[in-house]
Amino acid sequence: MLDAIGVGSLQEIFDRQIPEAVRLGRELDLPPGLPEQDVYEHLSALAARNTSGEDELSFLGAGMYDHYVPALIDMLMERSEFLTPYTPYQPEISQGGLQVMFEYQTAICELTGLDVSNASVYEGPSAVAAAGYLAKLHNGGSRFVVSAGMHPHTIETLRTLAHGYGMDVVEVPLRDGVTDPEAWAEAIDADTSAAIFAQPNFYGAVEDAAALSAAAKAAAAGAQEADGAAATGAAGRVPVVVAQVDPIALGILAPPGDCGVDVAVGEGQPLGNRLDFGGPSFGFFAARQEYLRRMPGRIAGETVDVDGRRGFVLTLQTREQHIRREKATSNICTAQALNALAGVVYLTWLGRRGIVELGELLLARTHYARETLTALDGVEKLHEQPVIREFALRLDADVAAVKRRCAAEGVNPGVDVQALTGRPEDQGVLLVAITERRTRAHIDRLASVLGAAVAAERQAVAA
Amino acid sequence: MSVLETPLQRQRARTIFQKGAPGRRAFVCPPHEVPGVDQHELLPASMRRAEPPRLPEVSEPEIVRHYVGISKRNFDLDSGFYPLGSCTMKHNPRLHERVAALPGHARLHPLQDPERAQGALELMWNLQGALAEISGLPHVSLQPSAGSHGELAGVLLTRAYHEARGQTRHKVLTPDTAHGTNPATVTMAGLEVVKVATNADGGVDIEDLRAKADEDVACLMLTNPNTLGLFDPNIAEIAAIVHGVGATLYYDGANLNAVMGISRPGDMGFDIVHFNLHKSFTQPHGGGGPGSGPIAVSERVAPFLPVPVVSREQDGSFDLDYGRGLVGSQTIGRLRGFHGNYGCFVRSYAYIRSLGADGLKDASETAVLNANYLLALLKRKGVAEYLPLAYGELCLHEFVLSGGPMKRALQIKTLDLAKRLLDFGFHPPTVYFPLLVEEALMVEPTETETKETLDAFAEVIAEILAEAAENPEIAQNAPYSTPVRRLDEAAAAKRPIIRQDLS
Question: A360 vs B77: CB contact, 8 Å cut-off?
Fold first, then answer.
């Protein structure tokens, strides 16, 4: 090979191209390579030092959930044909992946009740920031009004990224567990680019999505009338209403498209994706037709080949970074195609009836869990709003200490909310998630362990 | 329609929504087990969905047949050569899938208490350390979800760095050879792109850089080796110019596979680098993700790193650090939920441990050897006069040919050559990028291909060119054997159909 190249050594290839001064000139300070079986043992030993859903009875949620992933998803994701290709730049040999995207887009449109979907974005919180960017491009407003019921990671992510493209983020507080409707209407003005809420919200409460959407549009119209459109220079600016939705709940919950929502985004992990300590999963992004050309990311479209056969291509690419460069609707290139495949296979596996049945199961078991746990001493509902598969409790005890006591019994009762939000009012708040993997027996076990832990903790503090 | 249709061509595309029948299903719902309550009491009718979403109604065997069937309409890295420039399509070891699927990794909840996720945090700590050593930049955040997300982190923290020094800078310099993600990122970070010209050797035009580098420049974003596969020999001078005006130097890590263990961005003077774990560190690409885009940075911009990062405590345990542990942290904040694409970290960490220090260097050396060997094969008579190397003489891990002469002499465009390659069972190189090369063809063979594969690919290129000299229409109308033939992309964009019609 060196002869063909016309060099005397491999070293010569580097010597002729990389200046000596920027050459490393030593070995990297990394451990030596290992045979496959040793790497397996090492990674296996690391895995063994984690307490996963196999090792304890877990009620953790807050954005990612321990739903059952059917075996056929593993089998399909491991197929070389889906696992190992790059982004489908050559459609003639990428029809499988492109058709999956097309099917995925169809399923997401059906689920959200919206007209158009892209082929995935990274994950939930950054999907909200991407929706914000769409709103800014669409109407040029200068602020986002967001419900305090958004996941704290979503608000933090939105702040980071919105700061980049020059937007303010204004938070609207909750009242009785849901977005305060008066504060919401008041916060939305003629400079508001997007009004954003979560459904159900971070504390598990189902929001009145239709009312929030309508109020957002009405508030903007009212603000313009009051200010005079000429004075604000924002004639006719209506905020884009964005909802971050839980896709599992949409089997039974009114779809965002029916509630006046313009853009629905969310975390796709509950749909057939593993927990993986937080990623990779996928974010979904659906919108009304009028936003199609401002959507971020890849979109698969249908067409025909020269012989008239149906086929699929990446379409509307003039939105994208590789064509549009600094004028692109997003910088996203690699997204989450394989995870979105798991999502559409999961939705297909659930099917039209299954997704409703699963939603009803979650509703029933979550209700049972909420009632059972709030019958315990020192445990109260945080709010009275309807909940679907997650709910917030207020404990009359230190949450971290209660969690430690439960852990000793092999139970993880949920998420310590204040540790995540840092809000003073969240002291004592525990967020409990119920998936179909948590049976009645599991819930009863949680009640007995949590009840004992709260009692013991109160006693310890009293003593 | 030809009578010579292949079996895959005969199968017309039908989506899963066009299959099945009412009442068919795969999922069996577990019993509720809890006392019955009126569902409408639990969720008021006004909040309920009126009609179920029109998802498919199919059985499990139908789902398997459907997706296995359409999978066969994909070309993939396990089936053949995939010399897609800038994408580093190296072999994906199956060990990585096995270890990532271990329940201790795969079923670990991101909000598990850190003291009970010590294995995961140790893995992330070790990966941070390895990436710091490979890049020569000491501080690492694993958070970004992909390369372009890492770029955004890098530009945002550059902005924060300048703002913390009381400076508002507006411009980011990028060479005209840059990946499209660079300028798109700059806009999303609220800054403005200024292009820097490329010199006759394919490197940064130093005079143009000098003219444009001023106190309003926040950053220069560079890929080195660049998208022409060439290492910029003036890198020290470039760094001096950029640092001289107080700007930062950003390294797009897409081409890191050329220099692992050989030359480090930190030693070249870069302040920020993003890695593409799905390129250099062999996370399978999944047909368009997932990826992972960690960043490594120098001391001076470290306080602005996105959070969380993994820290090691006095007692040797690991924790997630949200900025408290970094002295004087002025973090730009979070870029996404949780801690990054951990499943990708597991795979790339397994890769780094499998190869070790010498193995990583060997991978880069072999990638460069393979690229130069393939380039040499394509310098032969019958090829080089149609597809000359655009710049330079040798290359690093990839090279760019120009199809301009081929287009004029043989009447076939780079696109035609790419489509004809499909009939020979090869994935084509990246085409029409970088933009400054006419009819560009960007070839990156990677280190995991054999000499025999490279020989075969070069033979096929020569054969296609010889065929075009006889009859250009063959390539102009290619491909013939793929599941579908050339697709009407213009029609797709003009009247977008982006979902199955269910009416």
Answer: no
Per-residue pLDDT of B231-254, as tens digits, reads: 999 999 999 999 999 999 999 999
In tens, the pLDDT along B8-37 reads 999 999 999 999 999 999 999 999 999 988
pLDDT above 60 for B327: no
Q: What is the pLDDT of residue B5?
A: 92
Q: Do B372 and A49 touch (CB under 8 A)?
A: no
Nearest partner of B78 among B344, B346, B342, B287, judged by Cα: B287
Choose among A109, A160, A349: nearest Cβ to B335.
Answer: A160
Would you put residue B302 in left (φ > 0), alpha (ψ -120 to 50) or beta? Answer: alpha
Those residues with Cβ within 8 angstroms of residue A462's Cβ, 6 or more apart along the chain or in another chain = none
Give the residue among A360, A265, A336, A251 at the shortest CA–CA distance from B55: A251
Q: What is the pLDDT confidence band of residue B322, given thresholds at 50, 70 and 90?
A: confident
Residue B399 DSSP code: E
User: Shortest CB distance from A313 goes to which of B334, B354, B489?
Assistant: B489
Q: What tens digit of pLDDT does each residue of B146-185 get? A: 999 999 999 999 999 999 999 999 999 999 888 889 999 9
CA distance A210 to B47: 9
pLDDT at A232 over 50: no
| Contact call for A280 and B149, based on CB within 8 A | no
Q: Is the pLDDT of residue A50 over 50?
A: yes
Chain B residues within 8 A of A160 when measuring between CB atoms: 156, 306, 332-335
Digit-coded pLDDT (tens) for A209-221 = 999 999 999 987 8
Asked if B29 and A361 touch (Cβ cutoff 8 Å), the reply is yes
Between the CA atoms of B445, B449, B451 and B456, what dihedral angle is there, to the nearest 10 degrees? -70
Q: How far does the CA of residue A225 sit from the closest CA of chain B (Å)?
A: 31
From chain B, pick out residues whose CB is under 8 angstroms from the CB of A3: none
Separation of alpha carbons B495 and B40, rounded Å? 42
Long-range contacts of A227-236 (CB under 8 A, 24+ apart): A227/A189, A227/A190, A229/A190, A232/A190, A232/A191, A234/A141, A234/A190, A234/A191
CB contact under 8 A, A126 and B149: yes
Q: Which residues in chain B are closer than 8 Å to A276, comparing Cβ atoms?
A: 100, 105-106, 108, 341-343
Structure confidence at residue A230 (pLDDT): 47
Note whether B261 contacts A53, CB cutoff 8 Å: no
Contact (CB<8Å) A13/B373: no
DSSP assignment string, B435-453 = TTSTTEEEE---TTS-HHH
Taking the whole predicted model, whether its pTM rises above 0.95 is answered as: yes
Q: Count CA within 13 A, CB hemisphere, residue A449.
A: 23
A36: chain B residues, CB-CB within 8 Å: 93, 95, 354
- Give the H or E element holding residue B431: strand B430-431
Do the Cβ atoms of A383 and A203 come closer than 8 Å?
yes
Q: How many CB atoms lie within 10 A of CB A11?
A: 10
The DSSP H or E segment spanning A159 is helix A152-164
Closest by Cβ to A164, choosing from B189, B354, B428 = B189
Q: Inspect the interface and report whether the beta carbons of A123 and B145 lie closer than 8 Å.
A: yes
CA distance A114 to B281: 38
Residues 6 or more apart from A436 whose CB is under 8 A from it? A67, A68, A358, A361, A362, A365, B29, B30
Q: B286 contacts in A (CB within 8 Å)? A: 82-85, 336-339, 341
Q: Give residues 35 to 64 of B whose Cβ lies within 8 Å of A.
A: 35-37, 39, 42-44, 46-50, 52-58, 60, 63-64
Give pLDDT, residue A235: 54
At A237, is the pLDDT very low, low, confident or very high (cuts 50, 70, 90)? confident
